[in-house]
Amino acid sequence: MPASTRPRRADARLKKEQILAAAVRTLSADASATLERVAQVAGVHRATVYRHYPSRDHLIQDVLSHALSEGIEIVTRAAELETFDDAVHTLAVDTARFAAQYAFLLGTAELAAAGPDPIGLSALMAAWQSSGLLRSDVSAEWLAATFIALARALLTPGAIAPDQEPHEVLADMFLNGAAQLTRWRTAGGSEDSVD
């Protein structure tokens, strides 16, 4: 392969990464942003964007692919941690950031086509169930869907108090639910009575 080809390919790859990063930033701020706006944010000519992405749908598909890869990395990172508390906390931190960054993908046909659990969160929940760390009276798929629903709910303006951190609320709600533990105990329940 001629040496002159390698730099061009490397440059094209860098431009594509630059465009993709700009697309995520731009679409996070304005989900209806055009390819022209993405080009402005990326600091490239719109023809460069069109060379890589002939349509907005092509760009969204590539952004989704990138997001799903990142989501898989988040789940993998949590699965590799030593303690359950560290794993849930890390999963909550990464998921809250991820949900905010890629909120513009929610409700898209492209995301729906990826299936109900394209990042493998259900498998992590099942592993935690098998280890006795999560209740077993509900499915791993339900636990994963609940975790994601909680993360999505955090995106609603005013969902949490200004002094709260989204990831802390996410981890606490997932692990402890909405009831105050003292209220649960007063009503005749106990922490030990929940699997």
Description:
This protein has 195 residues and is mostly helical. It folds into 2 domains: 7-54, Arc Repressor Mutant, subunit A (Orthogonal Bundle); 64-178, Tetracycline Repressor, domain 2 (Orthogonal Bundle). The chain is 66% helix and 0% strand. It has 10 helices and no strands. Helix 2 (35-42) crosses helix 3 and helix 4 packs antiparallel against helix 5.
Overview features:
Arc Repressor Mutant, subunit A; 66% helix
- Portion in helices: 55-70%
Strand content: under 5%
H/E element sequence: HHHHHHHHHH
Unreliable residue runs: none
Structural class: mainly alpha
Quote the CATH topology of the largest domain.
Tetracycline Repressor, domain 2
Number of strands: 0
What is the highest CATH level, the class of the largest domain? Mainly Alpha
Average pLDDT, rounded to a whole number, is 88
Gyration radius from CA atoms, angstroms: 21 Å
Under CATH, the homologous superfamily of the largest domain reads Tetracycline Repressor, domain 2
The major sheet is characterized as: none
Q: What is the molecular shape?
A: elongated
Distance between the termini: 61 Å
Second-tier CATH architecture of the largest domain = Orthogonal Bundle
Q: How many separate helices? A: 10
